[in-house]
Amino acid sequence: MSSPPLVPTYAPGERVQIDEYEYLVREVHEGGMGIVFLLQSQEPTYALSHPQFMAAKLFKPEVPAALLTSELEIWLSLFHPNILQLLRIGMIDYQTAAFAQWRQKGSLHTLLSSTGRLSTKKVKSVLFDCISALDYA
């Protein structure tokens, strides 16, 4: 019996091909269901499904199909300014991937990692945005 395929791994600075576009990996974050790559196109793109900046979430092969389907259905139904929009579902190296918007100022993780302590005003703003998005979801 063969082992399940592994989620492809790319390091910052490496290139990944998505359809006919080449993207540079800017950041990599791992979560419980998969790995998120923050990508930047090396050339201007005008297709809505392939913006210059986007995030690609590759799901781990051991994630049950029902859980994967449920996550994607919920994500597709969410329209809120504090929730990154799912652009499309596709494949990277034969693994299911969700392609989403990427905030040009980066993720909350990047903000906290690069700035350290935030002012009370900024903490309240970020907390309000998160609560608003969670309340909507």
Low-pLDDT windows of residues: none
Secondary-structure element sequence? EEEEHEEHH
Percentage of helical residues?
Answer: 25-40%
User: Which assembly state applies to the chains in this document?
Assistant: single chain
Order the strands across the largest sheet as they lie in space.
1-2-3-4-6-5
Brief summary of the model shown:
This protein has helices at 65-77, 108-115, 120-136; strands at residues 15-18, 21-30, 34-41, 53-59, 86-92, 95-101. It is of the alpha+beta class and 137 residues long.
Would you kindly provide a written description of the structure presented here, covering whatever features stand out?
The chain is α+β, with helices and mostly antiparallel strands and 137 residues long. The protein is built from three helices and six strands; from the N terminus they run ββββαββαα. It is 28% helix and 31% strand.
Describe the protein's topology.
Blueprint (H helix, E strand, L loop, with lengths): L14 E4 L2 E10 L3 E8 L11 E7 L5 H13 L8 E7 L2 E7 L6 H8 L4 H17 L1
Antiparallel strand pairs: 1-2, 2-3, 3-4, 4-6, 5-6
